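Shipment paperwork, digital attachment
Item: protein structure file
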Amino acid sequence: MKLFNTLTNKVEEFKPIREDEVTMYVCGPTVYDYPHLGHARCYITWDVLYRYLKFSGYKVKYCRNITDVDDKIIKKSREENKTTEDIALRYYNIFSESMKRLNVMKPDIEPFATKTIGEMISIIKDLIKGDYAYESDGDVYFRVKRYKEYGKLSKQPIEDLIAGARVETSDKKEDVLDFALWKKDEEYGYPSPWGKGRPGWHIECSAMSRKHLGKQIDIHAGGADLIFPHHENEIAQSECANGCKFVNYWLHNGFVTINKEKMSKSLKNFVTIDDILSGYDANTIRLFILTNHYRMPVEFSGEALDGAKSGWRRIQTAINEVKKNISSDITENIHEYEEVKLFKDSMDDDLNTSKALAVIFDVVTKTNKSLEDKDKEAINKYGSILIKLTDVLGFRPEKETITEEELQKRLDEIKNEMDFLTEEDKVLSGYRLMEKIIEYRNKARISKNWDIADKIRNLLERVNIILKDTKEKTDWEEK
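Attachment content:
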């Protein structure tokens, strides 16, 4: 397996510290508001990595933190006249429910920052002892220039970082680039050797990672916006405190954009997960995200989501048909099949989910052919592959929104008026017949045969089936 390591700026062979075991840390949410599609992109991406590592035979210890002490949480608590604990708990529960609805697996460890204050204080003490940090009127700062490798993740010299740094200016600092490890705070603070205060954002992840995964870990992942300053600062404080390399592989996912701008709460251009789930199911959202390579930006649009919806329906239909035609004892040992090898080759190539999905859609085609031929052995083979590989990518097949029998009944009313259908087509079951009808209509649209395309639309509307067109793709839903 090869992964792109942001630290080295290269695709590298993945070799864990301990054979067959992987330690993985992902920066979790700051729980002060509703999670948006950018969060969905991040956590679905690393959910897929987690699932695929396990599929590949690794024992994975996955830690994803919860930041429940932060300036934004305090600001929200004042706005709503509630305690910071109430705010954090409320939005943590909303986040957890959103992840559950998206079929994102819970990590093995989900630590809260407020439960790790002691470990943070311990690391800060070590940094002060090593002269890497200093106390100033109740605050504690990290001496950036004391760490000679600062900037190695973001690939920028210190002079450039100073010019473009998102840092708080303060008379308490020795240097403008020094960042806070501990902030004096009499109102919301915790007891410490430097008085009441609370941790800086960066020290939280260093402490939670060290406590639950050890001083050195295999993988640290998160959004590309965390490279600087968050992950850069994590490296500096962790390596100075621990005396060893912090992370072997740094992985970062690209942004979700709207009109080519990053989706974010600060720009007020975000779409919440609740909003998007009101119009699209979780599998559609996952397909929309995984169609793109994880390091590339994803442009959000209704058209792209409609295309993903159509694609997922095709997969779902094939899985539904398979489950009607084979026993529950599907073939479990699928690793020797050529299609699975191609899937693994794609995923081993820096988690190339786009290529992996192409393999899955090829399996869908082979599955549908075996269903048409009533070839039980082929149905079992390709159906087993399809069910397993979609599970590896975190898809969760849902029950049909309209039953096979109801769809069949509706199509029976009109199929004899569809003179383009062959007699073999007409004996297909409901969902397979619907797929065939859409296939014919798409061919008609491509050849600009609008009479046939409109005739199909009108006939389907007569039985309360509505078509939704997006360029050369068509989806459908019941009225």
